């Protein structure tokens, strides 16, 4: 049989190399074979159709379908993809397995968002911003808010965040499950922006048991992230380790975020070995499905770990993560800084920010250099340039501009 390379196939089908690679990873090209880091694709293979137009199979059984890999699928309409267990590499298959309707549409918006396509995510979510299905509406508002941060539509993001908080305020009249859903999305809407948690948010223990397993895992990420912001790095890491030990790893999207907050904790504790292990665990879950959005969102908090571990081995993926970082952080600051009165730096490169983040935590130039695989002189130059950009003279003054 004659085979083509990814590039040859991409030219033949008029697609990008990355899209062809994703088709291979997702098992959508019969006969495609992996050799090392490359793929061999049968010359007579047909171009896969647009997955959004593919026919959907109805879900069997009153107890609900099995997710890819044979795991039971929870039927919640709140952030359904986040709450779906699937083996790495089968994320799109999990979306395709859902029946047509709001649940699958929201899952598609989630898929676009977590794979770094905010324009598509915002477009899909916008359809449900006024839905009578309250869980679909809450999901749409959460996705729409964060997607619009990345595309510079700040007023739209603020609108969606306001809707989440308004729903939380009105949730007292609703069922316990809907109150738990409103609390979940309101907390998730605030935490990544490092905003104060909304007024009226119930204690975690009161709504956590009412959430299905995947969303419970993400709620624990939100809680661990909040403990991190309070400087409770050890307890935050403990929350993560406990959640993962109790099965959160079955749900790749929450698990990725849990691992990333553990990286933040262990870097703050100068336990780089544990930080590295969690970063690579997150990457192992994310890379087969291109779920890289979370890495871009958390870049400034990861203490140069992406530069140390991802950049050398996966330079193309690293560049995409940095693109996400610049887009997301620009919108993030436009909401965070005015709301909190903080002045998180907005004119440093990602490498300068990573070096300054570590310097602000008391790392020496040599320690930063060893960690980021650059020379001490390069570290010194990055910090000197950053001090000049920020119009300050001392390393100690970096703290006011960092995510500490």
Walk me through the structure.
By secondary structure, the chain is mainly alpha-helical. The chain folds into 3 domains: 48 residues; 264 residues, Serine Threonine Protein Phosphatase 5, Tetratricopeptide repeat; 52 residues, Orthogonal Bundle (Arc Repressor Mutant, subunit A). Helix content is 58%, strand content 2%. The protein has a 3-stranded antiparallel beta sheet. It is globular and about 60 Å long. About 6% of the residues have low confidence.
| Fourth-tier CATH superfamily name of the largest domain | Tetratricopeptide repeat domain
Find the structural class using helix and strand composition: mainly alpha
The count of helical stretches stands at 19
CATH class designation of the largest domain: Mainly Alpha
Brief summary of the model shown:
This protein is mostly helical and 404 residues long. It has helices spanning 6-13, 17-25, 91-96, 102-114, 118-126, 134-150, 154-170, 176-191, 204-207, 213-229, 233-245, 252-268, 272-286, 293-298, 305-313, 315-340, 350-360, 365-372, 376-390; strands at residues 3-4, 33-35, 38-42.
Task: Write out key terms for the chains shown.
single chain; 404 residues; mainly alpha; Serine Threonine Protein Phosphatase 5, Tetratricopeptide repeat; Arc Repressor Mutant, subunit A; 3-stranded antiparallel β-sheet; 19 helices; 3 strands
Which helices and strands occur, and which strands form pairs?
Layout: E1 3-4, H1 6-13, H2 17-25, E2 33-35, E3 38-42, H3 91-96, H4 102-114, H5 118-126, H6 134-150, H7 154-170, H8 176-191, H9 204-207, H10 213-229, H11 233-245, H12 252-268, H13 272-286, H14 293-298, H15 305-313, H16 315-340, H17 350-360, H18 365-372, H19 376-390
Antiparallel strand pairs: 1-3, 2-3
Helix pairs in contact: 1-2, 4-5, 4-6, 5-6, 6-7, 6-8, 6-16, 7-8, 8-10, 10-11, 10-12, 11-12, 12-13, 15-16, 17-19, 18-19
């Amino acid at each position: 049989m004659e085979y083509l390379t990814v590039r040859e196939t991409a030219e033949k089908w008029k697609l990008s190399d990355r899209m062809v690679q994703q088709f291979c990873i997702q098992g959508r090209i019969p006969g495609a074979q992996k050799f090392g880091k490359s793929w061999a694709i049968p010359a007579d293979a047909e171009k896969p159709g647009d997955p959004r137009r593919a026919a959907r199979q109805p879900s069997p059984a009153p107890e609900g379908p099995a997710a890819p890999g044979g795991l039971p699928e929870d039927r919640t309409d709140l952030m359904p993809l986040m709450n779906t267990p699937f083996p790495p590499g089968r994320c799109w298959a999990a979306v395709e397995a859902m029946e047509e309707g709001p649940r699958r549409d929201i899952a598609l918006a989630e898929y676009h968002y977590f794979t770094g396509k905010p324009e598509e995510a915002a477009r899909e979510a916008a359809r449900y911003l006024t839905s009578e299905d309250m869980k679909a509406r809450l999901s749409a508002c959460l996705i729409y808010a964060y997607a619009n941060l990345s595309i510079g539509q700040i007023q739209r993001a603020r609108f969606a965040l306001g809707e989440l908080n308004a729903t939380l305020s009105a949730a007292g009249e609703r069922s316990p499950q809907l109150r738990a859903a409103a609390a979940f999305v309101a907390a998730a809407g605030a935490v990544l922006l490092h905003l104060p948690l909304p007024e009226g948010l119930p204690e975690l223990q009161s709504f956590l048991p009412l959430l299905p397993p995947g969303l419970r895992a993400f709620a624990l990420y939100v809680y661990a992230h909040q403990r991190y912001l309070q400087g409770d790095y050890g307890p935050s890491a403990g929350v993560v380790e406990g959640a993962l030990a109790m099965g959160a790893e079955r749900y790749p999207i929450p698990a990725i975020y849990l691992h990333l907050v553990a990286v933040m904790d262990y870097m703050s504790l100068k336990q780089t070995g544990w930080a590295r292990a969690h970063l690579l665990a997150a990457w192992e879950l994310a890379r087969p499905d291109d779920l890289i959005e979370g890495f871009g969102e958390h870049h400034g908090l990861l203490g140069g770990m992406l530069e140390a571990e991802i950049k050398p081995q996966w330079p193309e993926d690293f560049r995409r993560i940095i693109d996400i970082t610049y887009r997301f952080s620009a919108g993030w600051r436009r909401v965070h800084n005015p709301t909190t009165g903080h002045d998180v730096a907005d004119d440093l490169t990602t490498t300068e920010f990573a070096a300054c983040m570590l310097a602000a935590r008391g790392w020496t130039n040599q320690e930063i250099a060893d960690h980021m695989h650059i020379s001490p002189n390069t570290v010194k130059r990055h910090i000197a340039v950053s001090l000049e950009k920020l119009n300050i003279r001392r390393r100690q003054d970096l703290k006011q501009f960092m995510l500490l």
